[in-house]
Amino acid sequence: MYTQITVILVILFAALLLSNIYSLQVVQNHIVSNSEHTLAIYTESIHNNLDIYAKDLMEVFENQADFARDYGEQYIRSGHEGDYFKEMRLINALKSKMTNNYASDGMFVQIARDERLLTLFGNRINSSNKLALSDFLKHQNWRDIQIQDHKEGQWSIVQVNDVFYLFKCITYGEVSFGTFVQADHLLSRTSREADSASQFMLSGQDGRILTTVSGNVMTITKDLAATEQELGSRYLFVSKPIAEFGHMTNIVAKQSVFSGLKLIQWLIIVLGVVSMVVVPLVMRFITKEMLRPILELVRAAKEVEKGQTLFPPPSREYSLEFMKLFHAFQSMVHEITHLKIQSYEEKIEKSRAELKVLQMQIRPHFYLNAISTISSLTYQNRNEEIRRMIQMLSQHLRYMFKAEQMLVSIDEEMGHVENYIRMQEIRYPDQIFYMTDLEAAAGDIRIPQLLIQTFVENCFKHALTYGEMLSIFIRVHMERTADDGAYVQIVIEDNGEGFPQAWLQQFQTSIRAGDEGEHVGIANIHKTLQLLYKQDNLLVLSSGGESSGAKIEIRIPVSNETIPVSISESSIRVGEN
């Protein structure tokens, strides 16, 4: 009882724990899902901005590419002397794209590497970064960056004075057109909308962290993979790819996500403490008021099981319900003892009556066949055969009407079968050949009366054809089993057409359904074997194929007390008329 209640408590605590874990998982999945939706909005915004910057660059390039190339060639030929009006045209072309609200952080036109650079910066770039960018843009080989952009369809990531920029460049001859945006500025919308529990960052394809928008969660200085490995136990990392340059990642502190679930955790702890106090008190009450009377009932029931016919009274007064239960058990034991004796007597009488009925169902076959044979002989005036027939019929009837004898020896049954065959030889001269192979050790084994006779009679009924020879083979021998037991194997075969397959299937179906139908004789034998030996596989009917007809196999279990010492001798008898 203690074990069972402990198991129940463990199951309840496990259910609470699993429920808590499931709640945490649901909340985490919900946070991840929300982060993914938020990232989808922000990454789409970044993608749209980069797409606008790229389109502005492409428009300037398409409108000014030839003009800038000619100016560049002239600039080189003239000894690097610039034309103010031509440069102003290019600067105005850049300015036309930089004055709208969706402009990048800067655009430039490089006339010749390390020579002439026309740059226009946006308002978001501070002065120190402008100087560093100007120096970087002047000496950069933009043709290599254009090849990289064209190959991967991405923006190039460049670090200038510890600040990351995204560049897009188009080179035409000695002239390069480009646009750039500071990585921090791509997260401007995110910085306005992010809450204090989240942190967003941009990273390149190689995992370098370009910029972060912090909600005062932490300071990140490593690449993305190292940061996730170090802080993965305390933070949730949700990333979404950005095709132009890398990934955008949302970092959420797990403590802030699960803070609302602390109440459930405290509730589980309180329940555990209360259970540790309440359960022992409940178990003490259960032991005193329930387990003790139950155990006394069990002990009394075991005494009754050992054979005591009276139910012992309780050792002391228990509750009203248990006292009623004790009295009910006393009355029940008395009633069961009476009904048990009565039931045994009824079962014995029922089995005897059932076996007698089965025998009476088999016997009419023999009377009818014998009377038919004698009637046939009288019409043929075969007096000698009639006298022999009457003598054998007398033996036949004497065997059948043995009083209260259900089991006979195999020797007696085989003598009765041979007597029956000889009666049939009188009726069908020159048409019957039979052979019996009886092992001497099996002769004393007792079997149900008329067991072999019934099947031999069926051979004459179904296998005998007028004008053709009927062959009957009966073999009785001993077989041993693997567990040192033994049984008698009885095989009866004829040379008729055998059992039709449809008949065998119908017979098996009727046996399983308990409907004997037109197979009363064989069905009764099957039932008799089942009642006597408590087995359902002692009778097997089959057809031997083209060379032989019906085949009946019967197994009779033999108890160890009746197993003969030697089972090697046998006698073979052959009869033919």
UniProtKB/TrEMBL annotation:
<dbReference type="Pfam" id="PF06580">
    <property type="entry name" value="His_kinase"/>
</dbReference>
<keyword id="KW-0067">ATP-binding</keyword>
<dbReference type="InterPro" id="IPR010559">
    <property type="entry name" value="Sig_transdc_His_kin_internal"/>
</dbReference>
<protein>
    <submittedName>
        <fullName>Histidine kinase</fullName>
    </submittedName>
</protein>
<feature type="domain" description="Signal transduction histidine kinase internal region">
    <location>
        <begin position="353"/>
        <end position="431"/>
    </location>
</feature>
<dbReference type="Pfam" id="PF02518">
    <property type="entry name" value="HATPase_c"/>
</dbReference>
<dbReference type="InterPro" id="IPR050640">
    <property type="entry name" value="Bact_2-comp_sensor_kinase"/>
</dbReference>
<dbReference type="GO" id="GO:0016301">
    <property type="term" value="F:kinase activity"/>
</dbReference>
<keyword id="KW-1003">Cell membrane</keyword>
<keyword id="KW-0902">Two-component regulatory system</keyword>
<keyword id="KW-0812">Transmembrane</keyword>
<dbReference type="InterPro" id="IPR036890">
    <property type="entry name" value="HATPase_C_sf"/>
</dbReference>
<keyword id="KW-0547">Nucleotide-binding</keyword>
<keyword id="KW-0597">Phosphoprotein</keyword>
<feature type="domain" description="Histidine kinase/HSP90-like ATPase">
    <location>
        <begin position="444"/>
        <end position="558"/>
    </location>
</feature>
<feature type="transmembrane region" description="Helical">
    <location>
        <begin position="263"/>
        <end position="283"/>
    </location>
</feature>
<keyword id="KW-0808">Transferase</keyword>
<dbReference type="InterPro" id="IPR003594">
    <property type="entry name" value="HATPase_dom"/>
</dbReference>
<keyword id="KW-1133">Transmembrane helix</keyword>
<keyword id="KW-0418">Kinase</keyword>
<keyword id="KW-0472">Membrane</keyword>
